[in-house]
Amino acid sequence: MTEAMFSEDNPGPNMRTITHVVYGLFLLGLIGAVFLGLAVVAAIVLAYFKRGDAVGTLYAGHFDWVIKTFWWGLLWGVLSAIATHIFIGWITGLAVVVWLLYRLIKGWLALFAGRAPEADV
């Protein structure tokens, strides 16, 4: 996909910069879990908000990638938290964090390469 041209009368950051901000906020929130966890929420809200503006560009795939990563990570994180009562939740929780980091890094590297993230096969 190619990047759609945006009109000059739309001041503010371009879609590439916004996508970098979404990845950065998500990673900052993931690393800072307790104190900066709201950064993840801000990243997801921004991704949902700008997803409509990115339709037809490679950035739409990045926003969808981040949104899916968030919801799947939240589901597996909650299940891991419940599983801590039977002492395997700590292991699955660590696996969730590793998976989230993998998805964020893979998506961000695809953004740097100028392409949409590809689904795992």
Give a verbal description of the structure.
It is elongated and about 55 Å long. The protein has one domain (15-113). The model is unreliable at 1-8 (pLDDT under 50). It is mostly helical. Helices cover 71% and strands 0% of the residues.
Give a quick precis of the structure.
71% of the residues lie in helices and 0% in strands.
Structural class: mainly alpha
Task: Tell me the series of helices and strands, N- to C-terminal.
Answer: HHHHH
How would you describe the shape?
A: elongated
Uncertain segments: 1-8
Average pLDDT score: 84
Radius of gyration: 16 Å
Main sheet, how many strands, which sense, barrel? Answer: none
Keywords, separated by commas or semicolons:
121 residues; mainly alpha; 5 helices; elongated
Strand-helix topology:
Layout (H helix, E strand, L loop, with lengths): L14 H17 L1 H4 L1 H14 L6 H26 L5 H25 L8
Helix pairs in contact: 1-3, 1-4, 1-5, 3-4, 4-5
